[in-house]
Amino acid sequence: MPATNRPQSMELEIRVQNLENQLEHARGLLHQVQLGHQADLDLAKQAYDGRVEILQHSLTDIRSRAERESRSVRESYAARLDAVRQQVREHAVEAASQDIVEQEEIKRLRALHLQALEETRRDHEDQVSRIKRCHLNEIEALKTSTVYVRNMDSMMEKVNDSTQQLQKLTAKYETAFHFMTQQSDNIAVSNKHLSS
């Protein structure tokens, strides 16, 4: 090799060696960067996995708590609904019993009212019959008496008195009948209002 080319060749070798060293150093730096990047990725993955696990646990806890609260609400609602239904049934039974008692009371009052009316009617008929018999007896006595003419005025007065007494008894019977009928209607209306 000529002497002039030897320094150039050495210089070229040195430059090549330097480039190779720089390349090796760059490779080393790249490897370190890759290792650091991988470490960062692993750390990020671990952090992400940890957060995902925490979120999963939180979600599980939330779901469990929501299920417990929902179950508690359903049980409470069912218990309240059963209590309301029981109260409704008891109220219905009580209302039915009260209605039966009221109907029996109405029947009893009607029976008493009819009995009182019947007794009043019989008393009135008995009094009318007695007055008629008295009139007939007086008339027969006056007819057979020799003092028929002299006792005519007295007979007429008795007849008038008996007629007035009959009218009073009739008016009393009608008043009692009207009063009892009105009382029965008032009781029926009052019971109907209570039932409604």
TrEMBL record:
Descriptive protein name: Fas-binding factor 1 C-terminal domain-containing protein
Range of residues in the leader sequence: none
Keywords recorded for this protein, A-Z: Coiled coil
GO-annotated biological processes: cilium assembly; establishment of epithelial cell polarity
The Fas-binding factor 1 C-terminal domain, residue ranges: 21-191
Coiled coil: 114-172
Gene Ontology cellular component list: centriole; ciliary basal body; ciliary transition fiber
Key word Cytoplasm present: no
Record's keyword annotation contains Calcium: no
Highest taxon listed in the record's lineage: Eukaryota
